[in-house]
Amino acid sequence: MSLTICDWKHGKRWVYSITYDEALEELHRFAVPYHEEFGIPGHVEAVAGHLGKVRQIGQSSYNGFHHMGPEGLRDLLARGWGVGNHSWSHEVIGPGDVQRELGDAKKLLEDAIGAPVPLFCAPGSNVNMADHVLEAARRFGYLGAMSITDALNRPGDELFWLNRTPLHEQYYEPFYSAYDPYRNIRFAQEDGGWIIDYCHCPLETAVHPNKDCSEAQLRRRFETVLAEGGDEVWCANPDEVINYHVTRRHATVETLAQGPDEHRYRLRIADLPPTVTCTELTLELVTDARWCAEPRIVVGSRAGGDAQTIIPLLVRPRTLRFTVEVCDGLEIGIGASGAQRRICA
């Protein structure tokens, strides 16, 4: 028998997320209704110093659009979305700017939405993924940082350089790579990866072909992800994924007993950052067929108290899967022939 932690929640093969830079009110025109229709949560990257203001940043193609205020951001949270920090000013972040751009911006956003902001999203370009920026992101309690790099994220990859796939009508010169609704999907399926799409504000026509897609292209991307992914894709808010990522990396499994009638294990969670807000993990137990008849998993804390009984899924012959909120010292047991046993003292 063996108890292992799944790479992704619910034992999914790969993960799909989507982010919208700038957190513009105009997302409610097409993007939010499509998310509601397809059941895919989103994530907005808010410019903290511009909450509730008309956009006017340099020569931006989105000048004249409207940054969401606290009420709009809280509405998205209620729909299962997340909010990231896209800096305070959307300018190049120098070593002397990190307090305002990462620290003050994070606090302002968290106060505005009444929820944690675990992800920093580099504005402008990967210039804002410089070493001094990423060091500050760690110091201010972020769990990860998102770049502008077209690549997958794998279970063992660096969390402070998360890659994002441009969901754009075409890329910048000199290649002009055209919109592809299948981009990176086959790769994610093969490697068990995490796709994070990014765009800005899809409308009938892309506001800027190198920065956005159209609403029709957004819809087709969602249809393609769900059609290709089926039961193997986890469509998730990036905040939920990063919490799972970090918890899994800090967890280990100890075997306590493997007798003829009962097997017991203990989870250890070491040095988990205090900013992690969800500690649910999905585990798989590979066992003999006789243990899979009417299986019951019993979990409880080392400190005692009532144990919880979970009915796991039989996902393939000899393999049981279940998701549980974990803590350091959590004990997990299974009895032969579906016997329910108290694991905790």
Structural description of this entry:
- The chain is of the alpha/beta class.
- It folds into 2 domains: 13-237, Glycoside hydrolase/deacetylase (TIM Barrel); 250-338, Sandwich (Immunoglobulin-like).
- The chain is built from 7 helices and 17 strands.
- It has helices at 31-38, 70-78, 98-113, 131-139, 185-191, 215-229, 238-249; strands spanning 2-5, 14-22, 43-46, 82-85, 119-121, 144-146, 165-166, 194-199, 233-235, 251-258, 262-269, 280-286, 297-300, 308-310, 313-316, 319-325, 331-335.
- β5 (119-121), α4 (131-139) and β6 (144-146) form a beta-alpha-beta unit.
- α3 (98-113) crosses α4.
- The chain starts with a strand and ends in a 10-residue tail after the last strand.
Descriptive key words:
single chain; 345 residues; alpha/beta; TIM Barrel; Immunoglobulin-like; 2 domains; disordered C terminus
Tally of separate helices:
7
Order of helices and strands: EEHEHEHEHEEHEHEHEEEEEEEE
Low-confidence stretches are: 338-345
Structural class: alpha/beta
Indicate the CATH class of the largest domain. Alpha Beta
Name of the CATH superfamily of the largest domain: Glycoside hydrolase/deacetylase
Number of extended strands: 17
Q: Any idea how many domains?
A: 2
CATH topology of the largest domain: TIM Barrel
Largest sheet: 6 strands, parallel
Which band does the percent of strand residues land in?
Answer: 15-25%
What is the CA-atom radius of gyration, in angstroms?
Answer: 22 Å
